[in-house]
Design goal:
The chain is α/β, with parallel strands linked by helices and 374 residues long. The protein has two domains: 160 residues, 3-Layer(aba) Sandwich (Rossmann fold), CATH 3.40.50.10490; 149 residues, Rossmann fold. Helices cover 51% and strands 15% of the residues. It contains 14 helices and ten strands. The strands form two sheets. Strands 2-1-3-4-5 form a five-stranded parallel beta sheet, sandwiched between helices. Strands 7-6-8-9-10 form a five-stranded parallel beta sheet, sandwiched between helices. The radius of gyration is 21 Å and the shape is globular.
Length: 374
Amino acid sequence: MELDKRILEIRRESSSDEVGDQERFRRVELTKIEMMSQGSAVRATLDANTKPLMKIAQDLKNRQISRIVMVGCGDSWISGYGVRHVAEKYLKAVCEPYEAFDFYKYGLDVINSETLVIGLSSSGKTEPVIYGLKESVKLGAYAIGCSNTENSPLMKEFPGALLIKATRGGWPTQSSTAAMALKIALIASVAETKGIDVDNLRNAILELPTQIDEVAQSFYANAKTLGKKLARSELILLTGAGPHYAPASFGAAKLKELAPIHSYAFPLEEYHHYRTQKKGDPMFIIAPDSKSHSRAYETAIMSQACKGFCIALVPKGESQISKIADVVWEMPKVEIETAPVIYSIPLHLFGYHIAIERDALGLGAPILGGRIDT
């Protein structure tokens, strides 16, 4: 009886994947509002945390940091991949994005006084995040709670607290990009206090809000066009290397949440170790920088060879991938440290537009041939 009751409770959740579900589309429209105001959310978040960042940086000034753990669930967890490279580059410490449940259950054995643990939860009440941080503090770690929700447990119970000035009435967009921007600012503050030159990083952070707004405006129509073209797709793949796995994962999440279709993100190299893409499968390749460019180029070649449909997000002026991809979105040239934030924006837009286009066609969740009716 308890099992049946729990199943019924889950099935009565507010939104569903059904065609035209009103609650889902209420959240879809809220997502549109939030995704188009991400620049403002990032700016407000950075402005609001000047003093808290200084306080945390002073706390950590003379503390040895050998390991950084970024804890969260869903997009909160994925945001850690977007800033991992920045943390390791500037703080010279191993940085690991750790899914919160896994961290709490399996990741505490190597936590000590040289560990910095950063927990992110929009509600500030996600239990695995809070449990993991509490146990980390007992083991001597310095813990920082990050949340959209002021006075939430995550903001009150740990040595550091950072408030993300973003809303999340729809599915995560600005709450994720503002969180990444704030984590980058945190890294800059801690590194600067330790005598590390962060001038270039500071400049990149300052440019972020304007760059986000410009990309959101300039790619809105492109995303709508592509959403219309791919509206009948039931599976979309996304890939990127290093920190660019984060925008790929955000893009996949929006497709699953808004559209709602099957979508998978994976690190770029993994494309080459399986028969990943089938004929006709659309795939986004996120390739912002020179470090992974040659492998991204080879991926685009293989995509064409298997007769997939390739959409490439590349910096303006890139010439190799652009010649062979089916669709090319030329992005502004930005620093590698902030590229995961900027390259997430068009994928948010695409998730929104494909949801609208599928609704216009009367399409809900995919119905695959192998599905078992229940």
